[in-house]
Amino acid sequence: MVDHELPQPPLAVTHEKLVDPLRDGTRSERRLLLVVGVLLFSVVYGNLVPKEIRALDVTLTAANRDALVLIMMGVELYCILTFWLYAKADLAEWQHSWEQQAFNVRQNMWKGVVPTPSLGNVKTSLDDPALREAFELSWNTATKVYSRRKYFDYWFPLAFGWIALFATTARLFASH
After folding, report:
1. pLDDT in tens, the chain (176 residues)
2. CB of 143 within 8 A of CB of 151?
3. Cβ distance 73 to 163 under 8 Å?
4. Are the beta carbons of 25 and 149 closer than 8 angstroms?
5. How high is the pLDDT of residue 124?
6. Distance of alpha carbon 79 from its chain centroid, rounded?
7. What's the whole-model pTM score?
8. Which of 15, 32, 168, 169 is deepest in the core (most CB within 10 A)?
9. pLDDT of residue 59
10. What's residue 12's pLDDT?
11. Is the dihedral of CA 69, 75, 78, 83 positive or negative?
């Protein structure tokens, strides 16, 4: 066996992207999107619209409360669009780094160099079942984690935001 200067095993190389695919700014937008969505649900379905804001010495009428809900809906729409734009850029970078890693791994496999978690990069036959199995387990695990994080970090907040917006719209217009 000959040791080569090749990338580390798939899990080690992609670990950072698997753990945190979104930048801090995108995470902040995601948090705001989810908070405003929860507030919309609370206001519309929990009837938690204040009748009075003492700090501002303001009393809200029914029309004022509807206007407050409409403003919150506008903020939620803004949050959805902002998060979508930020996350789309982050996910494109994340996908590119993932595809580059997959290309490197496939290229090294053709050379007969299989990166394995326990042995490092070793020159071996592609027919060696133990090394092949260790590599495939590592790669498949990384792929599953990648897919799950993509749905949880990207699709869930967007779906939640749209549901909050549409449910609020339906409830608001049904009450009039």
Report:
1. 444 444 444 444 445 445 567 889 999 999 999 999 999 988 888 888 777 777 778 787 777 778 888 999 999 999 999 999 999 998 888 778 777 777 776 676 666 665 544 455 555 555 567 666 766 776 677 777 777 888 888 999 999 999 999 999 998 888 76
2. no
3. no
4. no
5. 53
6. 15
7. 0.70
8. 168
9. 80
10. 45
11. negative
- Vertex 161: Cα angle to 65 and 32 (nearest 5): 80
Cα–Cα dist 138/87, whole Å: 27
59 bridge partner residues: 52
pLDDT at 13: 43
Q: What is the identity of the amino acid at 27?
A: R
Structure tokens at 107: 């290229």
Q: Which residue shows structure tokens 């133990």?
A: 130
- Reduced 3-state DSSP string for the chain: CCECCCCCCHHHHHHHHHHCCCCHHHHHHHHHHHHHHHHHHHHHHCCCCCCEEHHHCEECCHHHHHHHHHHHHHHHHHHHHHHHHHHHHHHHHHHHHHHHHHHHHHHHHHCCEEEECCCEEEECCCCCHHHHHHHHHHHHHHHHHHHHHHHHHHHHHHHHHHHHHHHHHHHHHHCC
